[in-house]
Specification:
The chain is mainly α. Helix content is about 85%, strand content about 0%. The protein has 15 helices and no strands. The longest helix is centred in the middle third of the chain and has 51 residues, at about 130-180. The chain starts with a helix and ends with a helix.
Length: about 400
């Protein structure tokens, strides 16, 4: 049974995610409206990813000294406090220097980089092992719903209310998210103080991640999936719609909406049959990746717009299933006290891989054509399936140990 602490954590993150998307939309709108430069506007996501990467590298040191729930509260409150100072400055000066805006993005993103590893590490502490897949499915589904609805309506909201009024909504949301986070009680957590050197604390998560065969396998699969996932960035999908499907931006919107709808259905599928996944997580992850690879390959060489929309839709469920299972496998296989550091390492790897993939696939699309990047996405995902198949004995060994421990217990 999922308990009150989970719903507090879930509610805090739902509201925080909404605030994050509205704030990003308002910031991007402000920067582009002020500078009329696409190059300057691109600096926004670069600062964001760079800040979160630095944050992820520092997080293991922080989690070695403070309790996980307190770090979550501090991270949420810090975002609220920074935003409050920013709003106060705007009220006094009636203007926002670009340097201040970029500083806001950096520090908000820095503390936001602590929130996700905190959330993913708290999940197995406040949710039973039997309910972990279901809980992750609920969180993942809500994330997709928020992305789908918030990106659709936040642009309209910013236009209707203006940047400043939109920021007030963000401020109120961050305050509510902080209150909900402060109500979470983690009785299983002990004092985390460590007197090891900062370098040893920072390196512990990386050592755990690459020494444990199961976690290492999931990390590799996740990194490869991030490479393939970069191909579905909005700009690439828009280019595909225009250059290959010969359609305008309306089809781009349909394609994105179709993908999000499929992802939501995939999340609901995980939630509804979570018990079925419990003892077959790794095989289902491989099947999901294999199905996605086939769909991505078909998408790369398809020129029919209606088929493209259908492929985007049916791609959502396998991607969502594999994402939930990967998160659950890491939560189950990492030791409780090392899980936050492992999750932080995963975020750092994903940010670095995503940034490198974005630049690389952009060059490939310009040089060899937009269809090439979807063929690459299909091939690298098939590569991750092969890696998973060769490593499946590690997870079979884990299942045997689990059954033996249950037999001894009963």
């Amino acid at each position: 049974m999922i308990k009150r602490n989970f719903y507090l954590l879930w509610g805090s993150q739902v509201i925080s995610n909404i605030a994050d998307i509205v704030y990003l939309m308002a910031v991007i709108s402000f920067v582009f409206g002020t500078t009329h430069s696409l190059l300057t506007t691109v600096i926004v996501p670069l600062i964001r990813f760079g800040s979160q990467t630095i944050s992820g590298l520092i997080f293991p040191v922080v989690v070695s000294r403070f309790k996980l729930a307190k770090i979550l509260i501090f991270a949420q409150f810090s975002q609220f406090a920074i935003f409050s100072c920013f709003m106060f400055f705007y009220l006094l000066s009636q203007s926002i220097p670009l340097a201040l805006m970029f500083s806001l993005i950096f520090f908000i993103s820095f503390f936001d980089g602590w929130v996700k590893p905190c959330r993913n590490s708290l999940m197995p502490r406040i949710v039973s092992k039997e309910e972990l897949v279901r809980a992750n499915g609920l969180v993942s589904t809500s994330d997709q719903i928020i992305k789908c609805s918030s990106w659709a309506f936040s642009g309209v909201l910013v236009i209707m209310l203006g940047t400043f009024n939109s920021m007030i909504i963000v401020l109120a949301s961050l305050f509510i998210a902080t209150i909900l986070a402060s109500l979470i009680k983690d009785k299983s957590e002990q004092d985390n103080k460590s007197y090891d050197s900062k370098w040893k604390q920072a390196a512990e998560g990386w050592k755990t991640s690459f020494r444990d065969k199961r976690i290492r396998t999931v990390f590799i699969v996740d990194a490869i999936d991030t490479i393939g996932g970069t191909a579905w960035l909005g700009a690439f999908v828009l280019a595909f719609c225009v250059q290959v499907l010969h359609k305008d931006e309306s089809w781009w919107g349909l394609a994105n909406g179709s993908f999000f709808a499929g992802s939501i259905i995939g999340g609901l599928l995980v939630v509804s049959v979570s018990n079925y996944f419990n003892n077959k997580k790794f095989p289902f992850m491989l099947w999901g990746l294999a199905i996605y690879a086939v769909i991505a390959g078909a998408f790369a060489f398809n020129g029919n717009p209606f088929v493209a929309i259908a492929l985007m839709f049916i791609m959502g469920p396998p991607l969502q299933v594999t994402a939930v299972i990967r998160r659950t496998l890491i939560q189950e296989n990492a030791e409780k006290d090392k899980l936050p550091k492992v999750m932080a390492c995963l975020e750092v790897i994903n940010n670095v891989v995503f940034s490198a993939s974005l630049l690389s696939l952009g060059w490939v699309a310009d040089t060899f054509g937009i269809q090439t990047i979807y063929a690459i996405a299909s091939l690298v995902t098939l590569g991750s399936v092969v890696i998973g198949i060769t490593s499946r004995s590690n997870f079979a060994e884990q299942k045997t140990k689990t059954l033996q421990s249950e037999a001894v217990r009963y």
